[in-house]
Amino acid sequence: MCHCLLILKPTFSLRFQNIIQNPVCIFIRRWHKEPIPVTWEKPDIGWTKLNFDGSCKGRKWKASIGGVVRNHKAEFLLGYAESIGHANSTIAEITALRRGLELVLENGWNDVWLEGDAKTLVDIISRRRQVRCMEVQRHLSHVNSIIPEFNNCIVTHVYREGNRAADKFAQMGHQLKKPTIWRLIPPEEVLSIVDEDAQGKIVLRRR
């Protein structure tokens, strides 16, 4: 019986092993990857931080936006959310950023940290990359016209686990009939997240 096993063709044996073992190996590699600890970080003294997010749902791309502004003590200054009709994720993200920037400018905050979980958009803003979509370009031009109005402005990417408050506002936007702004006191739906962020809660990101 053992001898019969030994005369199997190598090509067949390797193919059989690949079919059986590869999915298992992939699963094991993924299982053993260490989760990434993610926290929301406070801005420096004198700075305000805007976290923004966009949300799209369903086949018709029903979109909404949201964002939150906090100070160096992690105190809630302002939150916003609204439904924007039909749009893809990129349009939703940059619309969320644009609206947040307008509110920051209106309130006279001059040293601003912008943070979102859409890495492609963050790269477009920070590296001044060109885009082909005319609608995105229109929003981008407006964003680029606002940024120089601040004394200092930085933009960074964060994993979604560090952008939970903005994500919650964006989700709330789907249910709103008109644009809504909250000042100084966050809505109940976001209160626990804001408190956890202020306390430096670590959220593990599974790869």
Automatic annotation (TrEMBL):
GO MF terms, alphabetically ordered? nucleic acid binding; RNA-DNA hybrid ribonuclease activity
Q: Which domain of life is it from?
A: Eukaryota
Xref: InterPro entries: RNase_H-like, RNase_H-like_dom_plant, RNaseH-like_sf, RNaseH_domain, RNaseH_sf
Start and end of every RNase H type-1 domain?
Answer: 51-172
Specify the protein name: Ribonuclease H
Provenance organism: Quillaja saponaria
